[in-house]
């Protein structure tokens, strides 16, 4: 049995899935090495949910992503019968040039390393396992799939900031992210609601990272995310859209160091910063602290405002799609967000919403409301298989 390994490497965790290539792709297992460098734990589950591994490791044994990748490789060699034929990687930034997945070699990897300044918190983590595999198994095809590629068709107008042009040439552009999720959802919508998929659609990817994308005829034309993953909607711990004057104030008037500002905006803002309670929507919904309720109110408010902006980009709206952790699992927030879309003609059906059905709108709703679970890993596996073939 030939298999594909999909790797999604973050700052303190390495998530992975294995797919069998048999009549398309079949998910065999998914796992995660979390707490890298602090309290490493490897969890692996089979496709039917059974626990295949649950191991704690000493911090010194798994100090970084490269050793985490070695642990995962060793576990797969020992316990997994498949023959690994390729590795697909999630890479946050493809810069201005990579508008599709690409087979990795030394030259491409060096090129992607040049993009580190555009995503200093994510790109190095995404690339470290690629280099580790390239050094140990140069024969094994590795494919990079970018979070930016799906948005590369945006118009020049949509891609610019109103600053002197040379910055655009140097790479200061509105890129947009979560592209693998949007690509998956756009494809799924094409299968389940082809009439709608060719129309004007907003997809809301609401997870610990959150953004929205405007799809016209299945193609991305606008996104709430721009140069970095900080823009647009407030997220679990990230601020979302903020007046750049606030950053100047923090630096110049409060004398904060750039690193402190970075930590504030990436790690201590968003739902966590506003509520002072948690970054997790489940905890905020369960809390009776008024600040938790306020943080959720702000989140819903900003989603409503951004939906108006994307509907303007689309010249109207045929459907609004909820996806990712919050979008897929929280009927309460879906209902509150749908209420912000009533002026556009959206009407939610409470029973269908509570049941998490695919179409949660009433029959007379002018804007269809959908819940479409995303699957970024499957999207990466598909791209990897397509490039292999
Ligand atoms: P990521 O992959 O970016 O880590 P997810 O898409 O898994 O994020 O989303 C994680 C978030 O989804 C959690 O922080 C939590 O707030 C939210 N979430 C998950 N399940 C529920 C639920 N039943 N109700 C409300 N929110 C939920």
In short:
With 389 residues, this protein is of the alpha/beta class.
Strand arrangement within the widest β-sheet reads: 5-4-3-2-1-6-8-7
Secondary-structure class: alpha/beta
Shape: globular
Strand content: 15-25%
Distance between the termini: 16 Å
Sketch the topology as an H/E string, one letter per element: EEEEEHEEHHEHHHHEEEHHHHHEHHHEH
- Percent helix, as a range, is 25-40%
Ligand identities: adenosine-5'-diphosphate
Query: What's the number of helices?
Result: 16
Residue ranges: pLDDT <50 for 5 or more in a row? none
Give the tally of β-strands.
Answer: 13
Give Rg in angstroms: 21 Å
- Mean pLDDT comes to 96
Major sheet summary line = 8 strands, mixed
Write the SSE topology:
Layout lengths: L1 E8 L4 E8 L3 E10 L6 E6 L4 E6 L8 H15 L3 E9 L10 E2 L2 H8 L9 H14 L5 E5 L9 H4 L5 H5 L9 H14 L1 H4 L2 E7 L3 E7 L2 E5 L20 H10 L4 H10 L2 H6 L5 H6 L3 H25 L4 E5 H6 L1 H9 L10 H6 L12 E4 L4 H13 L1
Parallel strand pairs: 1-6, 6-8, 9-12, 12-13
Antiparallel strand pairs: 1-2, 2-3, 3-4, 4-5, 7-8, 9-10, 10-11
Explain what this protein looks like in three dimensions.
This protein is of the alpha/beta class and 389 residues long. 40% of the residues lie in helices and 21% in strands. The chain is built from 16 helices and 13 strands. The chain has an eight-stranded mixed beta sheet, sandwiched between helices. A five-stranded mixed beta sheet has the order 11-10-9-12-13, sandwiched between helices. Strand 10 (210-216) and strand 11 (219-223) form a beta hairpin. Helix 1 packs across helix 3 (123-136), helix 2 runs antiparallel to helix 3 (123-136) and helix 6 (179-192) crosses helix 16. The radius of gyration is 21 Å and the shape is globular. It starts with a strand and ends with a helix. The protein binds adenosine-5'-diphosphate. The site of adenosine-5'-diphosphate (ADP) has 12 residues, from helix 11 and helix 13.
